Each structure stands twice: as structure tokens, then as C-alpha cells.
């Protein structure tokens, strides 16, 4: 539908009340776009969007992506899906439906509108990887019937659908494979390491290290990741991805615990707990493709990002 008066770009963000979605929406509004946020508020909250109350270019719609959606927009960011294991394992069937039926509906919408569509995929498509660091041409090592399968296989099938709509129907798609990301508005209780350590340190509780803390992860600050989303969405037609977005600087979990203790000035001590089954020893993205095609490289150092995240949790735990 042609716009009669309004010349702003209208952008649909599914999962917009969540951690990443709400940051993305802030950036889209800042640059002058109009945003339709769609969310069923399963893990997202209205608190993440309170500051946008009465914003003239912002609209919220409560809707589940597993049901068809008929709206008129110019671009779609498809982020709807619980991301933390405790959340996506709460109702595994619904998790797969969200990824797969959600992708079908949003692709159907993009097809009808002839508009560009972005998919928030994940490093979990690599499963428990046997190559390090992971490049986009690695096919992964995923268990199809385990407790993580609803998330991993749902996201893999969503990628398949995106590429089939692209190859068969010429849809303009952009697929990002997102690695561990942290920052303000991440969930305090979802068991992820950054939020766990910060909350434990602020409360003076033991910092729970699983295993001996020698396993490594690479953590991307949310603002850097959103820069990557926008660079990918605005890249030339024909560059579809999948493209890894994450921070390639690796830290051990013990390093992370020590940094959090130093930053918070906490008197918490380290408590070593058993390592969960199938916990990867190492996860690190190869971001050569993002550097080459998008000119993107994360810039926020771990200490700086942690400082901002600690400030957020200090405020929200009061
Ligand atoms: P989040 O849980 O904070 O946000 C997900 C949002 O989707 C929530 O607001 C939730 O209410 C909404 N949602 C869930 N099911 C829905 C449904 N059926 N219909 C409509 N809305 C629904 O998680 P996040 O960290 O912001 O993740 C956003 C996206 O990025 C997800 O697709 C996730 O898989 C992907 N991702 C995130 C990370 C990360 O480190 N945070 C890493 C890899 C991939
Ligand atoms: N769909 C939607 N909004 C639209 C167009 C389609 O939600 O504006 C949904 C519709 O429910 C359909 C799905 O997207 O089931 C896939 O659409 P597509 O056109 O690819 O398939 P078809 O309608 O031919 O089954
Ligand atoms: N971890 C930990 N203590 C915690 C939470 C997590 O030592 O309180 C470890 C976990 O075992 C894993 C790493 O931190 O090795 C990252 O865990 P997270 O769940 O954040 O992400 P993922 O394993 O999906 O990368």
C-alpha cells in the first residue's frame, strides 16, 4: 500500500519487547523510522518499552507470531523467540512453533508486501561445534532430539525457510547468526553467566562458577550487536548472509567472574559447581565475513560493557 502522507520507513520488529528487540527499536526510532513492535510478552516486558510511551512514531501490538499477521510495513526484523534455555525449555513445542510457524508467517507477510526481512538466527545452529572458531560454512553438530533441539532445530529450519523463500521466490532476506550478547535489559533470572555473576556480586552472594572456570566464551555488548543488525539490514540486495555477529575476543569464565568482582567492589567469593552436561569448552565466532561485507567490528571492551550492565542492574535491583 502506497503511503499517502507519511514518508517515514515503517519497520516491524517481532519480539520487540525483549532484550535485543527493545534496543533495536530505540535505534530505529532515533534514526527517524516508524516502528510497529509485535510481541506476545512471553519473555519480553512492557517495562523495556515504558520510555517509548507516547512516542509518536512507536506502536505496540500484542500478537503471537505463530498466527498470521496482516499489516502494512516496509521492512521486517523477525526476533520473536525465547532465547535462554530456561525460557525456551519451558514449552519446547511452542518454541519450535514460534521459530517455524513464526518464520512462515513473517515470510508470507514479506512475500505479500515485497519487503526486506531480517532473521535473528543464532550461534546455536552450530550446536556443539567440532571446529573453532566457527565460520558460516560450518554445518554444525546438533542433536535433533535433545533438550536444546526445540531451539537449535527450530532456528535451523527457520534459516532453511528463509533461504527457500529467497531461492524459490526471490525474497530479499538477511540472516544474522548471533553469538552471546549482554547489556542492560537482559533478564536477571534466566541463568546466563553475565547476569548471574553481576546479580550475585551486587547481592554479595557466592559467584557460581560451573566447572573450573577455564571454559571460554566471547561476549558482545548489545550496542555493538545492534550496529551489526543495522549494517546487515542496510547492506546491498543480494548479500543474504548467513553472517556471524558476535565479539571474537575470548575470555575464560573465571576471568569474567574476577572482572565482575573488581567492577562491583563486591566481597563475593568464587564457588565452584559441577559443569552442566554438554557445556561447550569454547565458543568463539569468526567474524571475517561481517568485517568484509559489512565493515562491522565490535568496539565496546568487556570492562566498559560490564560497567554499563552493572549500572543497569544496580538500578533495577533496588
Ligand atoms: P528475549 O527473550 O529477551 O526476547 C524475545 C522476545 O520474543 C520476547 O519479547 C518474547 O516475549 C517474544 N516472543 C517469544 N515468543 C513469541 C511469539 N510466539 N510471538 C511473539 N513474540 C514472542 O530474547 P533476546 O535475547 O532479545 O533474543 C531476541 C532474538 O535474538 C531471539 O530470536 C533469539 O533467538 C536471538 N538470539 C539472541 C541471543 C542473545 O545472546 N541474546 C543470541 C543468539 C540469538
Ligand atoms: N501470511 C501472513 N500475512 C500475510 C501473508 C501471509 O501472516 O500478509 C501467512 C499466511 O498465513 C500463510 C503464510 O504466511 O500461511 C505463508 O504465506 P505464503 O504466501 O508463502 O503461503 P500460502 O498462503 O500460499 O500458504
Ligand atoms: N556459567 C557459570 N556460572 C553461572 C552461569 C553460567 O559458570 O552462574 C558458565 C556456563 O557453564 C557456561 C558459560 O558460563 O560455560 C556461559 O553460560 P551461558 O548459559 O551464559 O551461555 P552459553 O553456555 O549458552 O554460552
UniProtKB/TrEMBL annotation:
Keyword Ribosomal protein: no
Source organism of this protein record: Aquicoccus porphyridii
Residue span(s) of domain NAD(P)-binding: 12-309
InterPro entries, A to Z: NAD(P)-bd_dom, NAD(P)-bd_dom_sf, UXS-like
SUPFAM superfamilies: NAD(P)-binding Rossmann-fold domains
Pathway terms, separated by semicolons: Nucleotide-sugar biosynthesis; UDP-alpha-D-xylose biosynthesis; UDP-alpha-D-xylose from UDP-alpha-D-glucuronate: step 1/1
Enzyme Commission code: 4.1.1.35
Cofactors required: NAD(+)
Top-level taxonomic group: Bacteria
Cellular component aspect of the GO annotation: cytoplasm
Membrane topology label: Single-pass type II membrane protein
Leading EC class: lyase
Locations listed in the record: Cytoplasm; Golgi apparatus, Golgi stack membrane
Protein name as annotated: UDP-glucuronate decarboxylase
GO MF annotation: an example: NAD+ binding
BP-aspect Gene Ontology terms: D-xylose metabolic process; UDP-D-xylose biosynthetic process
Family: Belongs to the NAD(P)-dependent epimerase/dehydratase family. UDP-glucuronic acid decarboxylase subfamily.
Alphabetically ordered keywords of this record: Cytoplasm, Decarboxylase, Golgi apparatus, Lyase, Membrane, NAD, Signal-anchor, Transmembrane, Transmembrane helix
Amino acid at each position: 500500500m502506497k503511503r499517502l502522507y507519511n514518508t517515514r520507513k515503517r519497520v516491524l520488529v517481532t519480539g520487540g519487547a525483549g532484550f535485543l528487540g527493545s534496543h533495536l527499536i530505540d535505534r530505529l526510532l532515533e534514526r527517524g523510522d516508524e516502528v510497529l513492535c509485535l510481541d506476545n510478552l512471553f519473555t519480553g516486558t512492557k517495562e523495556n518499552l515504558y520510555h517509548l510511551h507516547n512516542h509518536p512514531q512507536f506502536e505496540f501490538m500484542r500478537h503471537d507470531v505463530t498466527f498470521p499477521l496482516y499489516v502494512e510495513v516496509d521492512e521486517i526484523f523477525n526476533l520473536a523467540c525465547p532465547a535462554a534455555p530456561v525460557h525456551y525449555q519451558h514449552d519446547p513445542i511452542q518454541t519450535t512453533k514460534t521459530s517455524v510457524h513464526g518464520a512462515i508467517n513473517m515470510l508470507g507477510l514479506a512475500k505479500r508486501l515485497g519487503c526486506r526481512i531480517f532473521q535473528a538466527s543464532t550461534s546455536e545452529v552450530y550446536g556443539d561445534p567440532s571446529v573453532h572458531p566457527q565460520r558460516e560454512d560450518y554445518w554444525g553438530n546438533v542433536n535433533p532430539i535433545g533438550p536444546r533441539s526445540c531451539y537449535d532445530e527450530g532456528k535451523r529450519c527457520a534459516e532453511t525457510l528463509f533461504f527457500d523463500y529467497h531461492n524459490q521466490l526471490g525474497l530479499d532476506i538477511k540472516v544474522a547468526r548471533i553469538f552471546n550478547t549482554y547489556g542492560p535489559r537482559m533478564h536477571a533470572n534466566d541463568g546466563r553467566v553475565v547476569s548471574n555473576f553481576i546479580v550475585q556480586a551486587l547481592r554479595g552472594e557466592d559467584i557460581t562458577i560451573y566447572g573450573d572456570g577455564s571454559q571460554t566464551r566471547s561476549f558482545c555488548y548489545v550496542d555493538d550487536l545492534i550496529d551489526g543488525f543495522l549494517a546487515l539490514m542496510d547492506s546491498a540486495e543480494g548479500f543474504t548472509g548467513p553472517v556471524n555477529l558476535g565479539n571474537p575476543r575470548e575470555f575464560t569464565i573465571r576471568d569474567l567472574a574476577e572482572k565482575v568482582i573488581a567492577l562491583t567492589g563486591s566481597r563475593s567469593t568464587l564457588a565452584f559447581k559441577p559443569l552442566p552436561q554438554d557445556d561447550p569448552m569454547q565458543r568463539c565466532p569468526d567474524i571475517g565475513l561481517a568485517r568484509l561485507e559489512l565493515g562491522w567490528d565490535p568496539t565496546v571492551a568487556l570492562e566498559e560493557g560490564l560497567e554499563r550492565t552493572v549500572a543497569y542492574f544496580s538500578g533495577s535491583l533496588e
